[in-house]
Design a protein that fits this description.
Layout: H1 6-9, H2 16-30, E1 37-38, H3 50-63, H4 79-90, E2 102-105, H5 108-114, E3 125-129, H6 134-141, E4 148-149, E5 154-155, E6 158-162, E7 180-184, H7 196-209, E8 212-216, E9 242-247, H8 249-252, E10 260-263, E11 269-272, E12 275-278, H9 279-290, H10 296-304, H11 308-334, E13 339-341, E14 347-351, H12 358-369, E15 371-372, E16 374-375, E17 386-390, H13 395-406
Parallel strand pairs: 1-15, 3-6, 3-7, 7-8, 8-9
Antiparallel strand pairs: 2-10, 4-5, 9-10, 11-12, 13-14, 14-17, 16-17
The chain binds pyridoxal-5'-phosphate (PLP).
């Protein structure tokens, strides 16, 4: 008789977004006349920019012609996109990254979940708390995280690094030494960023203890401050200790199109059983075996993000969301809330008033202001008493939501 994977069975149900959806639809059913504003969504709402649409149409037409038809894409990505990314995202910022160190994929979610496969089972991970849940859940599925404690919401074999207002939402170096360290800045959910000097401390630490940093740069396009790094490879020594995850989802609105990349430098290698092992080789092997490449038309769309027109249009799109973020952040502060993020990120993170739990504040906001956000406790125990609002709605809705919150 077959058995299901026990490691999967250990995962507690992910109730966050389904509970939110249930509560919102129950409230709407009871109050059909109320206009609910949703600032909980983590998905973009603006359409793809014209340069991307044009590239998509052109690539689709190529697929209709036997002379230009493309079948399977190279599993590590087309050269034209790897080159455009290496040039624009890395070398233009002074990061020493070669085209062949970029692996094109269908997005950062799958890469952030799959990257753990190239590490030995006995790997200890460190994560920020609160955190994007995929890092821990994917390691639980691989049998690495020990046992779940429903009381604390923590796994016994994971190092949690609290990020709260008290430490400026920047994790401190852990007292126990990890093997892999997941860092995401600008951060989801806290909306905070760290400076290049702060990230350099992590790179030096990882090189010293022999750990690998998995740096999730999904929100780098939202950075507005000069001292905030867009890539971990801006730090000295990162080539020997870091992997970076990139996404076109929030940067260019590709959440439905699907495109991302993982960057693994050739210098990231470990001495093992008398042999020097390059992680680049392992990830290439993984891609070759388990992935058949992002679609040609989507990679052409990705390339268009780096044209002059594409860059300008994407900047405008990000600017639209950041106008909302700034309005939400300042509106909350004016209303007396402690609010954070929103400067280098589309997320605003606020401390709940009157020491309400995150879920109490969710209910309060839904029933009194008809505004939906995301309870911070859903992202980890240190998210309790915090709440996330996103800038991905329309400007009009952001303004109206803030008017209602102010009136509470
Ligand atoms: N990483 C973080 C921190 C995210 O918040 C998200 C999406 O919300 C992703 C990765 C997923 O990105 P993608 O759409 O490229 O899979």
């Amino acid at each position: 008789m077959y058995r299901a994977n026990e490691d999967y069975l250990k995962l507690p149900g992910s109730y966050l977004f389904s509970t939110i959806a249930k509560k919102v639809s129950a409230f709407q059913a009871e109050n059909p006349d109320k206009k609910i504003i949703r600032l909980g969504i983590g998905d973009v709402t603006l359409p793809l920019c014209p340069a991307v649409i044009e590239a998509l149409h052109k690539a689709v037409d190529e697929q209709a012609d036997p002379a230009t038809f493309r079948g399977y894409a190279p599993d590590l990505g087309y050269e034209f996109l790897r080159h455009a990314m290496a040039e624009n995202d890395f070398r233009a910022r002074g990061c020493d990254i070669a085209d062949d160190e970029i692996f094109i994929s269908d997005g950062a979610k799958s890469d952030s979940a799959n990257i753990q496969e190239i590490f030995t089972k006995n790997t200890k991970l460190a994560v920020c708390d609160p955190v994007y849940p995929v890092y821990v859940d994917s390691n639980v599925m691989a049998g690495r995280c020990g046992d779940y404690d429903a009381e604390t919401g923590m796994w016994s074999n994971v190092i949690y690094m609290p990020c709260t207002a008290e430490n400026g939402f920047a994790p401190e170096l852990p007292s126990e030494t990890p093997d892999i360290i997941y860092l995401c800045f600008p951060n989801n959910p806290t909306g905070s960023a760290i400076t290049k000097d702060q990230l350099q401390v992590w790179v030096d630490y990882a090189n010293k203890v022999g750990a690998v940093i998995i740096f999730d740069a999904a929100y780098e396009a939202y950075i507005s401050e000069d001292n905030v790094p867009h890539s971990v490879f801006e730090c000295e020594g990162a080539r020997t200790c870091a992997i970076e995850l990139r996404s076109f989802s929030k940067n260019a609105g590709f959440t439905g199109l699907r495109l991302g990349a993982t960057i693994i430098p050739h210098d990231l290698k470990v001495k093992q059983d008398g042999e020097e092992v390059e992680l680049h080789r392992l990830w290439a092997r993984r891609h070759g075996t388990k992935y058949n490449g992002a679609p040609y038309i989507v990679q052409r769309a990705g390339e268009a993000c780096y044209s002059e027109a594409g860059k300008a249009q994407i900047k405008e799109m990000v600017g639209t969301y950041m106008k909302n973020a700034s309005y939400i952040l300042n509106g909350l502060k004016d209303a007396g809330y402690q609010a954070f993020g929103g400067v280098n990120s589309p997320y605003v993170w606020l401390r709940t008033p009157d020491n309400m739990t995150s879920w109490e504040f969710f209910d309060h906001l839904l029933t009194k202001a008809n505004v939906v956000g995301t309870p911070g406790s859903g992202f980890g125990p240190s998210g309790e008493h915090y709440f996330r609002l996103t800038a991905f709605g329309s400007y009009e809705n952001s303004v109206e939501a803030l008017d209602r919150i102010r009136a509470l």
